[in-house]
What does this fold into?
Amino acid sequence: MELIRWPLHAGFPSGHRRIMTMLCVLMQPMLFLSIVSAVSAVSAASTPKVNTPDVITLESLCADIVTEGVNRQRLIDPGSLSSLVRDPALDQSARLHIEDMIARSYFDHLSPDGLTPHDRITRFHRGLIIEHSGENIWLHRHATRDTPLEAGRQMMKQWMASTPHRANILSPLYTHIGVAVVRYAGDVYAVQHFVGSRGVLIPEIPETIRRGATLMTSVRTHDPDFMHLLRFDLVDPQSLESACDPTYLRIGHLNAPAGLFRIRLYFLSPDEKQWDIYLGPLVTVP
It folds into this structure.
């Protein structure tokens, strides 16, 4: 699925002791899967990996505070928005982005190899058909004295004061949220991943599909206009070139070479006149 990328709009508010920076990008809808991504970022990153005890403290406390803050804002919004469901897979994709930014010394919504927020989320989420996606990113430099409560409140205050980040938090398009917060070398990183889903994959797409296997996945949805999931194939993660012929779910047998691929799902419209394609997560053929 081709993504439309729009330019970055940045602002750089600063204080005397601490520096916070926010970056945002919006993506326009395409096909039947539209993407609305707003990304907030703050400053540049450091280096290696994160595996200290206070990381767990920040994730378990600060991330919970941020999630509660998001749903509180949605509740008091005049539009009476529904609460977002906390999703462990989105927590994981958010954390992976933080670790990648630290390891490769960058801070942006666009990774050095060109992955967008939507790419990151759909590459790893195996259970939802994602129609809309968004990302808020935050970095607080020299935040050694911040408690999880202070950091969480500060994130929400900054995001709600910024129009595009506030739009992500209060978007009626989203149904699920994932949050990751990491303290590294005295700095605090935070990533929110938002998703709007029209259907759930039952069972989820497996990480490994063997040659000759039959994929039994179907879609559960309350949308009567949702298209029928009938076929799938595998494509190269970078070029998106097909690695095998499309295979029917529940009856067909996969005929693909060994390797790492992304799964591509084919949906047939109710009038059986149109195919729409959804680019899903990474899978391995052993």
Observations:
- The radius of gyration is 20 Å.
- The CA atoms of residues 137 and 231 lie 35 Å apart.
- The first strand starts at residue 9 and ends at 11.
